[in-house]
From TrEMBL:
InterPro entries: Palmitoyltrfase_DHHC, PFA4/ZDH16/20/ERF2-like. This is Palmitoyltransferase. Its EC number is 2.3.1.225. It is an enzyme of class 2 (transferase). It comes from Mola mola. It is a multi-pass membrane protein. GO terms for biological process: protein targeting to membrane.
């Protein structure tokens, strides 16, 4: 009985570990699909503009922009998950040990400054910032650049999706601020279950709400970590109001994003080195 319960617990734990990544992937592709539909079918709204050359060029530019952001979000997220931020495979010790080094009794090894043990990842992480519950992995020295780049493109993508979904809010509120329109915007699930709206109206309202809430959440994360990056701090150091490893604004940018930090938004290749 104990063995069966242990197996069930391990499977549930493994499922919960991958659930945030699966959910985020579903939301990203759902938002991309909905915005693509808005670009290809709903816009432009005027019938005399639907078949013009400008309309075709407008749609092409928008589709290229949104899929450029989608590819960069997925690519940076994949690199973030594939890059192990832990001390595994890193030589620690020797004559380089000095002030600030500590001994981790869980990993049974000496760890350098800014390295700490994560009880979710069950390992010590180099320059540990925090454990990201949305990716199920720690943010550390090796994958910090991919984390920031992913946040940047998610912020741009959600800003773009929110602006594109402005027409959805206009359509919902065109008859005024009524109880029906307010509930559709705030509680679309209840409106769908009660049969007050169609599945199509629910999908548009739900994704539009997700874009706005996601944009606000990602904005807070992105600007907070951008602030930490230019100050040369980790989240733990910010909590304790310490900046012992700051190299100046330019030095901190080089340390986090590489020497070609100004090109990292274009390709992750420029983030290395």
């Amino acid at each position: 009985m104990t063995s069966f319960a242990t197996k069930v617990f391990c499977r549930v734990e493994r499922l919960c570990y991958h659930l945030p990544v699966v959910l985020n992937t579903f939301l990203v592709f759902s938002i991309t699909g909905e915005v693509s539909y808005l670009v290809m079918v709903e816009a432009p709204l005027e019938a005399d503009q639907r078949k013009t050359v400008w309309s075709a060029r407008w749609k092409t530019v928008h589709l290229l922009a949104q899929y450029f952001m989608l590819v960069n979000i997925c690519w940076n997220a994949m690199l973030f998950l594939k890059t192990c931020p832990s001390i595994k495979g890193v030589f620690l010790g020797g004559e380089s040990m000095g002030q600030g080094w500590r001994y981790c009794y869980t990993c049974e090894t000496h760890t350098p400054p800014r390295c700490s043990h994560c009880y979710d990842c069950k390992v010590c992480v180099l320059r540990r910032d925090h454990h990201c519950v949305f990716f199920g992995q720690c943010v550390g020295f090796r994958n910090y650049r991919y984390f920031l780049s992913c946040l940047l493109f998610m912020w741009c993508g959600l800003l773009y999706a929110t602006l594109m979904n402005a027409e959805v809010f206009i359509v919902i509120l065109k008859e005024g601020v009524t109880l029906h329109s307010v509930l559709l915007l705030l509680l679309p699930w209840i409106m769908l279950i009660s049969g007050q709206v169609s599945a199509r109206a629910f999908a548009f309202a739900f994704i539009a709400d997700t874009c706005v809430l996601g944009f606000l959440l990602v904005s807070a994360f992105f600007f907070f970590h951008f602030f930490l990056m230019i100050r040369g701090q980790t989240t733990r150091e910010w909590y304790s109001n310490r900046r012992p490893y700051s190299l100046g604004v330019l030095g901190n940018l080089h340390h986090a994003l590489g020497l070609r930090w100004y090109l990292c938004w274009l390709s992750v290749r420029y983030c290395r080195g």
